[in-house]
Amino acid sequence: MQLAERLKRLGTETAFAVSAAAAEWAAKGHRVYPFHLGDINLPTPPSIVEGINKAIRDGYTGYCPGAGIPELRAVLADDVGRKRGVTYSAANVSVQPGGKPVIGKFLAAVMNPGDEVLYPNPGYPIYESQIEFFGGVAVPYGYVETATGFDLDMDAIRRAITPRTRVLVYNNYQNPTGAQSSRQEVEELAELALRHDLWVLSDDAYYEMRYSGEPLNIVSLPGMQERTVILYTCSKRYAMTGWRCGAAIGPQPVIDAINRMNTNAESCTTHFIQRAMVEVIPNDEEGPASILAELRRRRDAAVEGLNAIEDISIQAPESTFYLFPNVTKIMERKGLEDVNQLMREALVHTDVSFCTREHFGRPQPGETQKYIRLAYSGIDVPSIREGLGRLKQYFED
Predict the structure, then answer these.
(1) Measured in Å, how far apart are the chain's first and last C-alpha atoms?
(2) Architecture of domain 62-283 in CATH?
(3) Beta strand pairing status for 228-233 and 199-203?
(4) Any idea where the domains of the chain sit in the sequence?
(5) For residue range 92-113, what is the model confidence (pLDDT) as tens digits?
(6) What is the CATH number of domain 5-43+287-396?
(7) How far apart are CA 107 and CA 199, in angstroms?
(8) Cα(273)–Cα(55) distance, rounded to whole angstroms?
(9) What single-letter DSSP state applies at residue 386?
(10) Span 143-179, pLDDT tens digits
(11) pTM for the whole thing?
(12) Is the CB of residue 202 less than 8 Å from the CB of residue 218?
């Protein structure tokens, strides 16, 4: 008996493999400094926990509409639209069990086999996996390292567009680089989408994980609301990674198609979680504010610790909870060519666990610089300082 051929095209979230290696190392009696996985080791705000417990007690434990309960769809339409300067109704919202399902369902709704999809690389590896699983052609675009962080490689994006290009996947406030687009970048992307008649998936997982400045979303530019689907998730904003609550927000025809997929896939998103979020999203800013304040403290400690290491220089990103330092010179000094070997040796010598660039999409021909990714969402400030101190000693040895 053989399995389906398409499974060969299905990738995975490779950061979980790093988690397994870290867990195995910890099981041998070592303390692990967990910079590898973008989980949040902060409690879900009490208002959400209380709201969910109340919803369970009140009996919201059965099936509900596959598109999501009407009250939550309306709340999300108002919250997401207002913060982006556009107007949505409940009909523009499809509630999901997390943000990740939006990627595959969106692609299944708008992409035919053989269509080309532009996606960020390095970027969230599930883009690449889902594009290829559904028979599309994954076309990567990258970033250019600057003195202030990372900019989109706009020239590469323009060169990559062909008559078969159907979709642009765009992750402003980006994992893994922490990149935040300028207005000019967003306007240039919108112009390309309009000129070439592209669908856009705007991955907004970190839209509200910003430490300063006003957010900017491509959907707010003229002509973009009609062709853009937003990936929304409660995971980061509310420290709800395990609760699994998110949404697709966009033009009604594609949302209607996603709703049909909901019914075929999971029937509905957990009823009592939805019921609690109806009250939380419009009213609880204190919980997310405290989460963001703690993440800012961790960011500052991590940036300070990395910049204390010889041959590393990194700017504090204004969004997400990731740092993406260039370790090319460190690898040259250690005589290493494989950045994953650096990762493995660092775990053994320092107990520090992190991901590498290679966990965020297949490296492209011509890449010469080596990067690692450190997430500071799952490790407290004292441990950040201690772990990066150990990493400094190893990197400089």
Answers:
(1) 53
(2) 3-Layer(aba) Sandwich (3.40)
(3) parallel
(4) 5-43+287-396, 62-283
(5) 999 999 999 999 999 999 999 9
(6) 3.90.1150.10
(7) 10
(8) 8
(9) H
(10) 999 988 999 999 999 999 999 999 999 999 999 999 9
(11) 0.95
(12) yes
